[in-house]
Amino acid sequence: MTSTQQPSGTPDFPDPDEGTPVWLKDFPHTSAGEDAVTRRAFTRYLIAGSGVFAASTLGAAVWTSLRDLDSGTPAPLINLDELAEGETHLFRYPGPDDPAILIHLPGGSLVAYSQKCTHLGCVVFFEPELTELVCPCHEGIFDPTTGDPTAGPPERPLPSIALEIRDNMIWALGIQR
Ligand code: FES
């Protein structure tokens, strides 16, 4: 053997990974390369977004439960003599954007309801031949004596309006939710 010959099996150069654990050789990510790993940032945004969504949902729920619902103030509607049995009187209650219906039912009783269908808000009307309150949008039917849904997609009754007769005048007193 000459002085320039290397013994067999001896590397020509030193191993640059010498002393590096095997796992680090297989997954060579270092803290300096974290910017390239976006999963952590994505998870952070996901958690922050979920927190904001949860907080806003909670806030909306609290606001809805605490806000003062407008149930209306007493208002004269129509003279009883002007509303024969089977006839209806349309009015706005409790606000100018709230359609409502007063019905003089066959048999003499008076009822009043919000006209907004409890399904998706279409305006219901009274069908005297069938003695039903009908929503034309999806064929929802309500019982005019109670406001309860009897057919179609609505599941909640129509909000009713308390009535009173004062000196032959029919008054709306407030929404009964
Ligand atoms: S809006 Fe009245 S039944 Fe759908």
Give a description of the structure:
This protein has two domains: about 35-65; about 75-175, 3-layer Sandwich (Rieske Iron-sulfur Protein). Helices cover about 20% and strands about 30% of the residues. The protein contains two helices and ten strands. The strands form three sheets. A four-stranded antiparallel β-sheet has the order 5-6-7-8, with no helix packed on it. Strands 1-10-9 form a three-stranded antiparallel β-sheet, with no helix packed on it. It has a three-stranded antiparallel β-sheet with strand order 2-3-4, with no helix packed on it. The protein has helices at about 20-25, 40-65; strands at about 75-80, 90, 100-105, 110-115, 125, 130-135, 140, 150, 160-165, 170-175. A hairpin with a 4-residue loop joins strand 6 (about 130-135) and strand 7 (about 140). With about 180 residues, the chain is of the alpha+beta class. Bound molecules: FE2/S2 (inorganic) cluster.
CATH topology of the largest domain: Rieske Iron-sulfur Protein
Sheet/helix structural class = alpha+beta
Low-pLDDT stretches are none
Bound molecules: FE2/S2 (inorganic) cluster
Q: What pattern of helices and strands is seen along the backbone?
A: HHEEEEEEEEEE
Helicity range of the residues? 10-25%
CATH architecture designation of the largest domain:
3-layer Sandwich
Average pLDDT metric: 84
| Shape field | rod-shaped
CATH superfamily of the largest domain: Rieske [2Fe-2S] iron-sulphur domain
The amount of beta strand, in percent, is 25-35%
Number of strands: 10
Biggest sheet features: 4 strands, antiparallel
- The total count of helices amounts to 2
Oligomer: single chain
